[in-house]
Amino acid sequence: MADKTIRVGIIGAGIWGTNHALALTTHPRCTVAVICDRDQDRARRAGERFGCAWTTSLDEMAASDVEAVTIATPDHLHREPVVAMLRAGKHVMVEKPLATTVADGLAMVAAAEQAGCHLMVDFHARWHPLFMGAKGYVDRGELGAPVMAYARLSDTIYVPTEMLTWSGHSGPEWFLFPHTMDVVRWLFGRNPVEVTAKGYRGVLEARGIPCWDAIQAMVEFEGGAFCTFESSWIMPDSYSNVVDNRLSLYGERGGLEIRNEPSLWAFTDRFHTPFSSESVTRYGKVWGYQYEPIRYFADCVADGVTPEVNGADGLMVTAMIEATLKSLSEKRPVAIAEVLEAGHGRQ
Question: Which of 68, 180, 254, 345 gives a 20 to 30 Å CA spacing to 298?
Answer without folding.
Answer: 180
